[in-house]
Amino acid sequence: MEIGIVGLPNVGKSTLFNALTGSAAAAENFPFTTIEPNVGIVPVRDPRLYTLAKLFESKKTTPSGVRFVDIAGLVKGASQGEGLGNKFLSHIREVDAIAQVVRCFSDDNVVDVTNGATPVQSLEVIATELLLCDLDQAQRQREKLLGSARSGNAEAKVMVAELEKAIDGFNKGIPARKQGLSSLLQTFSFLTAKPILYVGNVGENELGGNALTQELEAYGAKEGVQVVLLSAKIEAEIVQLPESERTEFLQSLGLKESGLDRLVLAAQKLLNLMTFFTSGPDESRAWSITRGTPAPKAAGKIHSDIEKGFIRAEIYTYDDIVKYRTEAALKEKGLIRLEGKEYVMKDSDVVYFRFNV
Fold first, then answer.
1. pLDDT value at position 180?
2. CB neighbours of 276 closer than 8 A, spacing ≥ 6?
3. Residues with Cβ < 8 Å from 150, sequence gap 6 or more?
4. Which of 203, 229, 288, 318 has its CA 20 to 30 A from that of 324?
5. Cβ contacts of residue 301 below 8 Å, gap of 6+?
C-alpha cells in the first residue's frame, strides 16, 4: 500500500521525501528499495521490535516499512490540465492515501507561490482541485449510463441515481469520504474518497508551533484529520547523522522522536495497517498487514510457501513476552495459543507459523 505526498510548489514536499528515503537508506538491516526516483519504502521505527530483539538477543533486527510516493507539485487549475495537472491527478489515483504538506514557515529565500496564503487556504486549493476532478468523472460516468437507464436497464438506473447523489455532494463541496457513498461507486476510485493527513512544515526554530500551525491543527480537528508537525529541513539534517548521535541531537531540540518517525507511524495508521512480529535468536522482524488479515494471509507476507502449506500459528502477545521474558515461561503459564486458518491477526501478535509444503 502507498501513501502519496502532495502539496503546492515550494512547501518542502521534496525535501521531506528526500529525508524519508534518506532515513531508509541509513537504517541498518532495512531492505531499502527505491522502485523509481519518486518512490521509497521507509522503515517504521517501532520500539516494540527493538524490545523483542533485546529479549531474544537477535543477531538481526528488521523493521517493517511504509511506501511513500513523491507526487509532482500541484497548481491551481490542475483539474483543467494546468501545470502537470493530468499527470498529478493520475498519480494520486494510484495511491491508497494522501499526506498533504503545507507551508507553515516564512523564508524569503524560498518563493511562496501562494502569495501568503494560509495553510487552510492552501489545503482548500488542493481539496478543490480533487473535488473538481471527481465531479467531472462522476458527470462523465452519468452521461455514459443515461442511455441504458432510459432504456429501462435496472442496474444503469441504480448507478445513475447513485452518481447523481455523488454529483450533488461534490457540487456542495463535500468530499466522497464524507458522503457515505454506495459501494457501487467504489470502482470509480474517487480522489476525495482517499484517507488523508496534514503535514505542517515549520521553520527550524518553530518546532513548538506558531500561529500558522495553530490554524492548521484547529482545521484538522474540525475535519477529523490527523496533523503532523515537523521541520523538513531539520529532518534532512537528522538522517545525515550516525544512528548513535541522533538521540542526543533530538534531545538538544527538546524532542523524544523525529518528525519522520511520527509521520511514518501516522501513515501506517492512515493506511489501516497493523504489525505482527516474528522473533528469535537469528532475527526479530516486524511485518505490516492490513487490519482484519487472517493468519494464512499474514504468513504469506513472509513467504508464499508458508501461506500455501499453512498448518497452524503459534501465537503469544507482545505484552506477555515482555512480562514473563521467555517462551518457556509462557508455555508453563499456558499463554502460547495454537490458532488455525480462521484466526484473524491482532496488532502486537508474536507468531511462529507451522507449515508443510
1. 92
2. 286, 287, 289, 298, 345, 346, 347, 348, 349, 350, 351
3. none
4. 288
5. 287, 289
Given the C-alpha cell 517462551, which residue does it identify?
327
What backbone phi and psi angles, to 5 degrees, belong to 300?
A: -65, -20
pLDDT over 70, % of the chain: 92
Is pLDDT of 73 > 80? no
What's the angle, vertex CA 252, arms to CA 247 and CA 256, rounded to 5? 50
Q: Give the predicted TM-score (pTM) of the model.
A: 0.87
- The three grid cell numbers given for residue 333, joined into one nine-digit string: 503459564
Measured distance CA(266)–CA(166) in Å, rounded? 29
Position 311 scores a pLDDT of 98
Q: What is the pLDDT of the chain when averaged over all its residues?
A: 90
Closest by CA position to 3, among listed 35, 42, 37: 42
Distance CA 138, CA 119 (A): 29
Q: Report the distance separating Cα 44 and Cα 58, nearest Å.
A: 18
Q: Residue 37: which pLDDT band, with cuts at 50, 70 and 90?
A: low
How far apart, in whole angstroms, are the C-alpha atoms of residue 39 and residue 207? 27
Please name which of 33, 96, 38, 98 lies closest in space to residue 65, comparing C-alpha atoms: 33
User: What is the distance between the alpha carbons of residues 183 and 189, in angstroms, rounded to a whole number?
Assistant: 11
Output the DSSP codes for 113-132. TTSS--HHHHHHHHHHHHHH
For cell 529532518, the residue is 235
Q: Report whether pLDDT(33) > 50.
A: no
| Residue 262 neighbours by CB under 8 Å, 6+ apart | 228, 230
The Cα 111–Cα 94 span in angstroms is 30
What pLDDT score does 34 carry?
44
Q: What is the pLDDT of residues 189-211, one digit of tens each?
A: 899 999 999 999 999 999 999 99
pLDDT number for residue 343: 98
Q: Helices (H) and strands (E) in the chain — how many of each?
A: 13, 12
